[in-house]
Amino acid sequence: MRSSAGAVLLTVLLLLAGGAGTDTVRGGVRQCDTGGQVVRYLVVFEPPTHSAQAAARVDAACGELGTFHAQIAVGVATSADNRFTEYIGPRRAIASREPGHTSQSAGTVPRSPDEFTGDANDLTDRQWNLRAIRAEQAHTRQRGSDDAVIGVLDSGIDADHPDLRHSVDSELSAGCLSGAADPNPSSWRPGASAHGTHVAGVLAAADDARGVTGVAPGARVASVRVVDDAGRVTPEAAVCGLMWAADHDFDLVNGSFLVSPWPGTCARGSGRDAVREAIRRALRHAHERGTLTVVAASNKAAELTPSHALAPEGRACEVLPAGLRDAVSVSASTRDGRKAGYSSYGLGVIDLTAPGGDGGRCVLSTVPGGYATLCGTSMAAPHVTGVAALVASERPGAPPDQLRRTLTETATSVPCPDDDLTGNGTQDTHCEGHTGYNGFFGHGRVDALTAVEQATGFR
């Protein structure tokens, strides 16, 4: 039984937590329901909140605090009481989705089965994507250094793949599916999904005249698993991955995923404010620690609204993390340089474009057991991250803002199209902006050679 002093303290904590007055309180102590299903929650506290304060507030709301990221005052809690979000306070928490509730969170367009190959011969002649961003020319000057570490926040990487075993750093890898970082190899290796291995290949596959070659074949990658086998990314997994990368001083993060705990990509479901604020804080912390985060714009063909100026209700669409200020957001372009029809877009959101492919001309890369083509903004993002790794290798210790500026200043401008994208006689989407900066392509297509040349000039 709690002491009377403890009861007074709990009553105060309940008021601080914003608890409602409809719950059962006896003798100053909340009566918690302990017979329900235990559910995991992401919880956002007012900074600064210390771990002891956070634990007390969660306890007062009938929960138990697990992981707590003190730097950003965000934690992961569990509770068997279905009134936990009510007790902890409005806009402070969101429950993880029920098992089996799936969504396309990783941003890929499925590959055609007949395009899979296990051939280990030199396949670089099929890598039109490298030539589109002049990566092969850039490699004559810079191939990437193992001092440049890229956190691949994805579905896990096959570290035994012959094109990747040189680059995967197992000491810096971790799994975050539970919301708590686990460095055990079983937690960060891939399950049923080939997505993370494909992204890693675009980034850093070996340039060894066998298989494929990455944009930065000399860079190191760390597998930080945030995407489960259903293609789902919970908010707590995304926060965990970003915090792991920041606290281990990664130069770069590639986030080819979409956090969408709601049925619709642009939905404004319960808990959205908590999710947005938690990811915003994690991105800002990573930025302040010297990590540049590059993310996919999503494959929803949606017009994205800048987070600082939301459109009227019914038109607003902000995807996370692409819509946040500290993320470099990448749209997907086709082999002929047009915006891929599936790629989301938006003036003030898209920073750069890169090859994502479409139809039968997708991006070839590594998958467990061989090689395959995939299309998507998930494939576009690692092209930009790879070029950033080349620049970071040329200029060790360059801060995120400088890396970002180099990418945008050296990009090849791509003007808005003046024709329809689908060939049905009407322009299906509207491209706002001008040649140097617009909603389809941002500052333009990333250019590896020019970026490396500019980085070399900094010395």
UniProtKB/TrEMBL annotation:
One of its GO terms (molecular function) is serine-type endopeptidase activity. The keyword Methyltransferase does not apply. InterPro entries: Peptidase_S8/S53_dom, Peptidase_S8/S53_dom_sf, Peptidase_S8_Asp-AS, Peptidase_S8_His-AS, Peptidase_S8_Ser-AS, Peptidase_S8_subtilisin-like, Peptidase_S8_subtilisin-rel. The keyword Protease applies. The active site is at 154 (charge relay system), 195 (charge relay system), 378 (charge relay system). It comes from the Bacteria. GO terms for biological process: proteolysis. Residues 92-121 are annotated as: Disordered. Transmembrane segments: none annotated. SUPFAM superfamilies: Subtilisin-like (SSF52743). Residues 147-427 form the Peptidase S8/S53 domain. Residues 1-22 form the signal peptide. Keywords: Hydrolase, Protease, Serine protease, Signal. Belongs to the peptidase S8 family. PANTHER family: CEREVISIN-RELATED (PTHR43806:SF11), PEPTIDASE S8 (PTHR43806). This is Subtilisin-like serine protease.
